[in-house]
Amino acid sequence: MEIKNKIIAFLNMSKLHIKRISTQKELKDFVLFNHSLYKDCSNAVPELIEDTLKNFDKKNNAAFEFCDAEFFVAYRDGEIVGKVAGIINNRANEKWGTRNVRFGWIDFIDDKEVSKALLDAVIAWGKERGMDTIQGPLGFTDLDQEGMLFEGYEKPGSMYTIYNYPYYNEHMQAMGFEEDAVWVERNINIPQKDGENSANQQKFFRVAQLVKDRYGFSIHKFKSKKELRESGYVKKVFEIINASYKDLYGYSNMTERQMNMYADMYLPVLDHRLVSIVDNKDGEPIAIGICMPNLRDALKKAKSKMLPFGWWHMAKALYWKRSNILDLLLIGALPEYQDTGCISLLFADLIPTAQELGFVVAECCPQLVTNSKALSVWRSLDTVETKKRHTWKKSI
After folding, report:
1. In terms of domains, do 223 and 275 share one?
2. Residue 393 lies in a domain
3. 170 and 275 fall within a common domain
4. Could you tell me if residue 394 is inside a domain?
5. In the 3-class helix/strand/coil scheme, how is 311-369 assigned residue by residue?
6. Does the N terminus or the C terminus of the chain have fewer Cβ atoms within 10 A?
7. How many domains does the chain have?
8. pLDDT tens-place string over residues 90-142
């Protein structure tokens, strides 16, 4: 009887098992699976563990005011072999007239049984709540990582984007998913003082001067992060993001609590010199450009943990020994000003600052291929397309 029970126990362990996580330890295991799956992949940049756990905390993440979420883990032989988050953004569904359940933070070994079981769990959870379509990978909001990489695997990732193995897309196709939105990423060779990579950068300066003369626009700069926080501009910056992104794929407006959350998250690591704001003639902000040093190498050295010594690698990369790569985090303008050339003022300000700080390349965050206005700003610079990513969708 004892041998029989051991055989039964072994067979049960060998079966694939999907578990809806319920404890903090299981949530941490959920996050750490990505790190183990990509430990030998030099181009992957795992998320900062502490930040990811905070993002999944209902008390910390303001998106839970309008989002529902469940987290699923796949086990086989007692080991984690995959994970996925199921998310319903009720605000986005109401805005777009959809009944979508999102899948996000998905990772799995190269086993189609595993990937199917994970997504079947999200589908079942979504259908219980009246959803009729599954789409992803997406996060709670547009400021989370989104889009599955399908071109540019040989390029290094970033802390703001998803990196995945090529087989992920093969699994999605095998399950009958269809391509949805597509984003493109590019590197911009920053014009240097010696003329290298200059392309047609002078166009920005010419247009910037014309815009100043015609509309009375001006660049607003800050002397410190403290001044930026106390100026009242932070909320206005997020209001510009809400307005400029409102018609983009899947976007849902940030609430005031979300604005405060992101301010607390990003202000401590921003360099005020790399924040550029365009004011109209009445002194009201109408466009923003926010950049920061690339932290890819620092995250790897820190092993994506702030403690015990990860904070040192991060601080060094931000303040003392910066990478020569600049990350373009956010660029946007109020819709009524998007055809005025106000974006030229941002670049006319940021290019000399980047030169002075020693940056050579700027990495642009993913941009929707349908967002022609945003893509057109690079025409006067020396750029190269580096990656493409997309979301998948399927009726359920």
Report:
1. yes
2. no
3. no
4. no
5. HHHHHHHHHHCCCCEEEEEEEEECHHHCCCCHHHHHHHHHHHHHHHCCCCEEEECCEEC
6. N
7. 2
8. 999 999 999 999 999 999 999 999 999 999 999 999 999 999 999 999 999 98
